[in-house]
Specification:
Elements: H1 3-28, E1 29-33, E2 47-52, E3 58-60, E4 65-68, E5 78-82, E6 90-97, E7 102-106, E8 109-112, E9 115-116, E10 140-144, E11 149-153, H2 163-166, E12 169-170, E13 174-186, E14 191-192, E15 199-200
Antiparallel strand pairs: 1-2, 2-13, 3-4, 5-6, 5-13, 6-11, 7-8, 7-10, 8-9, 11-12, 13-14, 13-15
Amino acid sequence: MDVKSKLREYVEAIIIAVVIAFFIRTFIIQAFKIPSGSMKPTLQIGDHILVTKFIYGVKIPVIQKTLIPISDPKRGDIVVFIYPEDRSKDFIKRVIGVAGDTVQIKNKKIYLNGLPYNDSHGVYTDDMVIPGAAQPRDNFGPVTVPPENYFVMGDNRDQSYDSRFWGFVDRRDILGKAFIIYWSWNQEAFNVRWSRLGQFLQ
């Protein structure tokens, strides 16, 4: 085999690898890094997670139109989505309300369709209760989630910028469901959080 043929083989192999990687990243699975503490304690700053993209359907890239619907996000799902106020950023939050749900927050307690919501993942670190007239963190709504939209919140309820502040997430903007932590780096302690590796998210 001459040098030219070998070079051509290498180039073809690289192109195929790039195409496969692009296909996997676009339609099947994608890695994300957690930059903030809005999902503590479920997700820590420095956690690296994998997000399954096909679980909610196969989409056309860029325009985010679903070609093959598979399932819809459910209450309790941890989803990655395009941030509505800056579409160059991706956010991660937990689904609290789906289309048709009426969401209300009274003194930090979540009510869904008039009933107390089983907020097993929510953590509150601030004893202060802020009146709704001042800001919507602790007293909000009621609002009804429109069709094809979702109401999302961070698990770190007192330290999360979410649907209470900027509104709903459009179905088209949801990129996928977070399902596992594959790496976790503690920047402050400069070490690996070994116990978190391989942890499935709930």
